Amino acid sequence: MTIGRREVERRANELETMARDERRRYLGDHAVPVVKGPKGRLYAIDRHHLLAALLLSGAEKVAVKAVLDFRDIDSGTFFEVMDDLGLVHPFDDEGRRREYDDLPLRIDDMADDPFRSLAGALRRGGGYSKDRTPFSEFLWADFLRRRIARSRVETQFETTLAPALELASRGEARELPGWHANGGVSIARVPSAPTPA
């Protein structure tokens, strides 16, 4: 239901700086995983930020990889099956669960969740590690949402990374995917081992 607009803009800028061959290789290596659903529609189950960045940069085509074929499933139960398999995350930009009918049909209709962008910046800043847990960035976004004022993230984004890093280092973040004991501690602050004589 949501993406982080700052993340989308960052990705679009990265794509624009790539040479044509580099971009082609990158997109070939990052095919969008999709599920074939009722009426032959394709449903992206990952890489929504990449899709939004491609749309922003004017791309008209993208490589996809069908991982499941649910064309024979009744459209009324399709999202229930997807939810049971952990392939859909029907939560809005305030972390509230919504009805399946509220899911946007198009990537560019997804709502901006500034905490998704903050979670991405936190991961790149060393606050947690990339993890295979489904929707791990959503879990981090929700953790931050409960601890940092949305208005601050929206208006003073750059100043929210330091408190996010500090929050990530706390024991209360221990159960989140990708958490590590030195979360939020920059490498410069970690004492170095003495040099052997």
Topology:
Blueprint: E1 2-3, H1 5-17, H2 20-29, E2 32-36, E3 42-44, H3 48-56, E4 64-69, H4 78-84, E5 111-112, H5 114-124, H6 136-145, H7 150-155, H8 161-168
Parallel strand pairs: 1-5, 2-4
Antiparallel strand pairs: 2-3
Helix pairs in contact: 1-3, 1-5, 5-6, 5-8
Which short descriptors sum up this protein?
3-stranded mixed β-sheet, single chain, 197 residues, disordered C terminus, mainly alpha, 38% helix
Largest sheet: 3 strands, mixed
Side by side, the strands of the main sheet go 3-2-4
Instruction: Report Rg.
Output: 19 Å
Low-confidence runs of at least 5 consecutive residues: 184-197
Mean pLDDT: 90
The percentage helix is 25-40%
- Secondary-structure element string: EHHEEHEHEHHHH
Strand content: 5-15%
Roughly how many Å apart are the termini?
Answer: 57 Å
Number of H- or I-type helical stretches: 8
Structural class: mainly alpha
What sort of overall outline do the alpha carbons produce when their principal axes are compared? globular
Number of strands: 5
Q: What does the model show?
A:
With 197 residues, the chain is mainly alpha-helical. The protein has eight helices and five strands; from the N terminus they run E-H-H-E-E-H-E-H-E-H-H-H-H. The strands form two sheets. A three-stranded mixed β-sheet has the order 3-2-4, with no helix packed on it. A two-stranded parallel ribbon has the order 1-5. Strand 2 and strand 3 form a beta hairpin. The chain is globular. Residues 184-197 have low confidence and may be disordered.
